[in-house]
């Protein structure tokens, strides 16, 4: 991110813009795709990010911390509040404004990779159950954000292309049912599904999640999905995310003015992350506990929960991704991008401060006590 920021605000800015918008084509006979490099990053490379998210969601739902209704209530309700409150704060500034209203989803997402990275700074000084809560919260958050992208940031849907994508997914499900362990057929048909979704008008990254859900959990007792997920994590964390950040966080300071940074879209995005996320997550989770629908994780104090709620406001990667979908104006996009970075940074610092203040002697957890005694 810092490299892109320095590059864009240096005399070499022309080379950054050249790389950013360089057209890149893939041709097979008379059929081909041609897009600027930044679009290949956002619609192609980010598919791997969402594929990894899809693998994680499937594993957590089938055998992880979301496999038990007793464990999923609190993070599910917290995630819902953590999406509604930021959207409401954004719309407080932008409702009725046709130029900015459609950016309401920018502050609803949590960047789980960065949030957990921030949480890891405190190491064993925070309860393990808090990390599980934050992870589960982010899984629901990711699922909700993907639904938002599919429903509200899709234009001109092609039923023919969607039908082709559906056919490809049916083939992948067939591979799953036949317990095919060779991943090559999954890769080939997965590419077909991605192209079909790309041509359908639905954002192509949705294909990553759909294909992930067709990967077998196990084959003959061998943990196929977990192995793929573990293998992808370093590539996504150290490859896909930094490249995406490089191509989407180059902010021209020359184009930023106080009015753009304090404009309704920028304020809505920044305050939605920094205030809306903790307000929504902590408020909804508190109501869930007091109503009996959910249980506070064992060993986690209310201050721990508040700190984790602020960490949910670290929305860097997916917030920038949604911003790129929502805003066509470079000036508006730059202002919102800077606000997302500021809001995410403030959320991380505040969350760390609260968790450091809440640190306490940890109590040992029994295997069944992650979310409730």
Automatic annotation (TrEMBL):
Name the job this protein performs.
Na(+)/H(+) antiporter that extrudes sodium in exchange for external protons.
Q: Which GO terms describe its biological process?
A: regulation of pH
Alphabetized HAMAP family for the sequence = NhaA (MF_01844)
Q: How does it sit in the membrane?
A: Multi-pass membrane protein
Q: Where in the cell is it found?
A: Cell inner membrane; Cell membrane
What residue intervals traverse the membrane?
72-92, 104-125, 132-153, 159-175, 187-215, 235-255, 267-290, 302-326, 338-358
Give the matching Pfam families: Na_H_antiport_1 (PF06965)
Q: According to its record, what are the GO cellular component terms? A: plasma membrane
Annotated protein name in UniProt = Na(+)/H(+) antiporter NhaA
Q: What keywords is this UniProt entry annotated with? A: Antiport, Cell membrane, Ion transport, Membrane, Sodium, Sodium transport, Transmembrane, Transmembrane helix, Transport
Q: What is its main location?
A: membrane
Q: Could you tell me what reaction this enzyme catalyses?
A: Na(+)(in) + 2 H(+)(out) = Na(+)(out) + 2 H(+)(in)
One Gene Ontology MF term: sodium:proton antiporter activity
Tell me its family.
Answer: Belongs to the NhaA Na(+)/H(+) (TC 2.A.33) antiporter family.
């Amino acid at each position: 991110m810092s490299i892109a920021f320095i590059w864009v605000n240096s005399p070499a800015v022309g080379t950054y813009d050249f790389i950013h918008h360089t057209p890149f084509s893939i041709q097979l006979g008379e059929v081909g795709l041609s897009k600027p490099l930044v679009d290949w990053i956002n619609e192609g490379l980010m598919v791997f990010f969402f594929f990894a998210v899809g693998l994680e969601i499937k594993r957590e739902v089938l055998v992880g911390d979301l496999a038990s209704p007793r464990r999923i209530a609190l993070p599910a309700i917290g995630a819902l509040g953590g999406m509604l409150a930021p959207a409401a704060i954004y719309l407080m500034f932008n409702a009725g404004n046709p130029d900015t209203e459609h950016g309401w989803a920018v502050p609803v997402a949590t960047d789980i990779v960065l949030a957990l990275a921030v949480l890891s700074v405190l190491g064993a000084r925070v309860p393990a159950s808090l990390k599980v809560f934050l992870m589960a919260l982010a899984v629901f958050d990711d699922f909700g954000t993907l639904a938002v992208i599919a429903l509200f940031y899709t234009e001109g849907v092609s039923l023919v292309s969607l039908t082709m994508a559906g056919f490809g997914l049916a083939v992948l499900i067939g591979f799953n049912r036949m317990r095919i362990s060779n991943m090559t057929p999954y890769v080939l048909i997965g590419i077909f599904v991605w192209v079909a979704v790309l041509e359908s008008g639905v954002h192509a990254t949705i294909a990553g999640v759909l294909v992930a859900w067709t990967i077998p959990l196990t084959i003959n007792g061998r943990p196929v999905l977990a192995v793929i997920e573990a293998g992808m994590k370093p590539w996504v964390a150290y490859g896909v995310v930094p490249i995406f950040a490089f191509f989407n966080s180059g902010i021209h300071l020359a184009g930023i003015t106080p009015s753009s940074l304090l404009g309704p879209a920028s304020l809505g995005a920044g305050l939605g992350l920094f205030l809306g996320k903790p307000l929504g997550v902590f408020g909804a989770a508190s109501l869930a506990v007091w109503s009996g629908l959910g249980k506070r994780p064992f060993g986690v104090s209310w201050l721990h929960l508040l700190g984790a709620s602020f960490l949910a406001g670290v929305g860097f990667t997916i917030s920038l991704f949604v911003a790129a979908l929502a805003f066509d104006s470079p000036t508006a996009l730059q202002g919102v991008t800077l606000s997302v970075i500021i809001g995410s940074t403030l959320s991380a610092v505040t969350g760390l401060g609260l968790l450091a203040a809440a640190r306490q002697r940890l109590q040992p957890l029994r295997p069944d006590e992650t979310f409730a005694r």
